[in-house]
Amino acid sequence: MQYFLDVVLPIPLERLFTYKITSEEATFLKPGMRVAVPFGKSKIYTALAYALHQEAPTAYEAKEIYQILDETPLVNPYQLQHWQWIAKYYMCTLGEVMRSALPSAFLLESETLILPNKEAEVDEMGLKDDEFLVFEALRYQSALKIGEVSSIVDKKNVLPLVNRLVQKGVVLQKEELYEQYKPKLVRYVKLGGAYEAEDALEALLQDLTRAPKQSQVVLSLFQLQAAHKKPIRVTDLERESGGSRAVIKALIDKGILKEYFIRTDRVEQEAESASVANITLNSYQQDALQAIQSGFSEAKPVLLHGVTSAGKTEVYFKLIQDFLENGKQVLYLLPEIALTSQLINRLRHYFGSKVSVYHSKFSIHERVEVWNNVQKTEDKAQIVIGARSSLFLPYSNLGLVVVDEEHESSFKQFDPAPRYHARDAAIVLSNLHGANCLLGSATPSIESMDNAQKGKFGYASIPYRYGNVLMPEINLVDIKEATRKKRMKGHFSETLYNAIAEALEEGEQVILFQNRRGFAPIVECTTCGHAAQCPNCDVSLTYHQHRNQLRCHYCGYHMALQQACLACGSHTLDKKGFGTEQIQEELKELFPEAKVGRMDLDTTRGKYAYEKIITAFEQQDMDILVGTQMVTKGLDFRNVSLVGIMNADTLLNFPDYRAHERSFQLLTQVAGRAGRTKKRGKVLIQSYNPYHQILQQVTTNDYDKMFAEQYYEREQFKYPPIVRIIKITLKDKDYNKLNEAAEWFAGSLRNVLGQQVLGPEYPPVARIRRDYLKNILVKMPRNLSISQTKNSIKRIEKSFNAISKYKSVRLVYNVDHI
Fold it and tell me: End-to-end alpha-carbon separation of the chain, Å?
């Protein structure tokens, strides 16, 4: 009887592929195990076992699997179900979800090895020069990788050469699988067994009197053992004794010391004593907690709406404590890695070493270790805190999912697929596990508030700040008037300048927000009006002063700042607009005594970069922090009395139906960083249009009015949450072909779906990385079946792919486009 295995391959293909397996393999294999399978002519992929059955595929001859890579399933049934939902809902393939979900160390890649064919008799004279070079190299090496062959013959494409050698029988090809994850082994030393007795030890020390350095190492080993009563690392012994590695190696070679290795986690946990009992809630927090628990009892997700600095985090901690006591796992989702670094310390203070962290700044090996700890439900992985990728970990006993700052657009994945929204995926994940889900925010998204008002979500609120601290005083500064009267100092109005000076005088800290990095977004020639453009994208290049170069923020293209205009040769270059770098420079001139820090994508490249900046600001090593929206998200600084927003208009005047909602959220969040202790904070918002309704609503902190106005507008113009939106982007390098293909696709959609199709239309940036883009929006009323609409779109895509002329045009689906 024949057995077959359906597998998921980590490639963007719709269907599962079937392979032949033996009856022994069939009894051993379970869904969720990894298997290595041949695919295509010579590639070997790591695939995931999905289903066992006895039906042979009809379209092709099933190949045999290469090898089984796991003893037990790596992916559990909850994950497979969750992945299927993501693939179906967000219109991508299971393979794309798998590639995104698994740490890349689990996806073994194949590498072709070239081996000498020892049984062949080779006619050396019949070999070409490059063939002979490879043949000669294989006399001295047992195997060569493709890359090594390439460097031997000094050619990029060596596959034709390798094929010739294979056909002549000179070499053999072998696909080798490379396991990418290696456990971290730490080297320890102890005294050799022969010297454990006292008399042997005395004799040894006598012998070593002529070797003072070796004697010192042995004595240091004793001191360390006496002090710590635990295994001694080689590095610690080196430091303590002042001896070199060579001295320690000599002692190991003589058998006086014995080395051994212990496997350790790369993610070091600070072993703190947990002081869980200290979570005390005030009356408002208690009321919110009761409302949350009553929502949970009805098996609904709950929205916690608490003003900035209301103490939402303490409510989360109290809930986490309850779930941990019942032996459940907790997932704490945050939109930004910057937030995790500040919250980890607070979580560890309460819950000791039960906290694990998981996000993209971690190395491959660290991610594998967290994955393994969660899978084994280890004590150190009871609480997982992380960015959106931590949704994919192998939870088996999940009790609570907390989505903090649920309104954040960073929860939506943009590229590559799956383009999922972590908040919605978290609600589905908690449903699958029968767990509870809590969404928290000071400025909830319109969709979540709509769900709460309609009774789909439970609702809890904390209307006052913790300790009854007053909400910050928010003032609008009219910079149109100030510019006209020439009262601006660079980009600072008199009001903001004086407020900063006053705060610094009183030893308080200041946060300045400008949502644009770099020094200036445009460098323009004042003679001919030419501005340097990116050759790959339809955007101007941003000037970065610290590197003295112009950079594209879309594709990374950069060039040195030109001394003269590239179009007319004139030297009259002028920098237009301003970014965080320019604000930092101006502050150094205006306040030479103050220490100014900057937090944007340029300064937070490294793994611990966020932590260093946040810690320095918390410890008051900086007086002023200039930042992009990273500084707005839930950070808690105790000594900030003033927040300045450099230009609110850039947020408001954005071609997007969410621009006003986003502006309200961003401005309210950044204002919430001010005055979080006893003294009332102050917020200054600079704008050319201070009478704008959104700015007025921010000053009065009137969320309800903003919600009512925005909801009314969305009803009028048919935007979420009234309808659902799927954005279809078509990409191609050929401008005319893209136009034609987009018209064809939009026409076909209109034939099937009627009037709810908008476009095709160019986005604000119509070319990125040399690809032209065109968007089509499909709006679906809530009462229509979304799956039927998606099926119709997929059917049209099949017809579209059958047209050979449009083969190169790529389609990208973005469901619930944000």
Answer: 51
Tokens of 814: 């973005």
* Tokens coding 204: 């040894």
Closest alpha carbon to 393 in 378, 414, 410, 412: 378
Smallest CA-to-CA distance from 78 within 302, 320, 377 is with 377
CB-based contact 804:717 (threshold 8 Å): no
DSSP secondary structure letters along 717-750 = HT-TTSEEEEEEEEEES-HHHHHHHHHHHHHHHH
Give the integer Cα–Cα distance in Å for 537 and 311: 44
Cβ atoms of residues 624 and 591 within 8 Å:
yes
What does DSSP say about strands 355-358 and 383-386: parallel, antiparallel, or unpaired?
A: parallel
Asked if 759 and 746 touch (Cβ cutoff 8 Å), the reply is yes
Token representation of residue 203? 């004799």
- Which H helix or E strand runs over 38? strand 34-39
Express each pLDDT in 171-216 by its tens digit.
877 765 555 556 666 777 787 777 767 777 777 777 777 778 878 8
Task: State CA 669 to chain mean position distance.
Answer: 21
Could you tell me the pTM of the whole model?
0.83
| Alpha-carbon span 526 to 523, nearest angstrom | 10
Give the count of alpha carbons within 13 A of 519, CB side only: 15
Closest CA to 691 of 549, 441, 480: 480
CB-based contacts of 53: which residues, under 8 Å, 6+ apart?
3, 4, 6
Separation between Cα atoms, residue 458 and residue 302, nearest integer Å: 4
| Displacement of CA 299 from its chain's centroid (Å) | 30
- Cα separation, 711 vs 230, in Å, equals 63
Instruction: Provide the token pair at 367.
Output: 């991610």
DSSP 181-213: ---EEEEEEEE-GGG-SHHHHHHHHHHGGG-HH
DSSP string, 321-372: HHHHHTT-EEEEE-S-HHHHHHHHHHHHHHHGGGEEEE-TTS-HHHHHHHHH
Q: Which residue is listed with tokens 């279809």?
A: 728
From 796, 753, 809, select the one nearest 777 (Cα to Cα).
753
Please, is 79 exposed, middle or buried when counting C-beta atoms within 10 Å of its C-beta (0-12, 13-18, 19+)? buried
Q: Using alpha carbons, list the distances in angstroms from residue 321 to 275, 315, 351, 727, 778.
A: 11, 10, 8, 41, 44
pLDDT (tens digit per residue) in 757-812: 998 999 999 999 999 999 999 998 888 888 899 999 999 999 999 999 999 999 99
Among candidate residues 587, 612, 586, the one with its CA nearest the CA of residue 599: 612
Q: Strand 383-386 to strand 436-441: parallel, antiparallel, or no bridges (unpaired)?
A: unpaired
Are 638 and 676 within 8 A, CB to CB? yes
How far is Cα 773 from Cα 732, in angstroms, rounded to an integer? Answer: 7
For 529, residues 6+ apart whose C-beta sits below 8 A from its C-beta are none
Neighbours of 297 (CB within 10 A): 10
The conformational region for residue 242 under phi > 0 = left, psi -120 to 50 = alpha, else beta, is left
Rg (CA), the chain: 31
Q: Which of 456, 419, 458, 421 is nearest to 440 (CA)?
A: 458
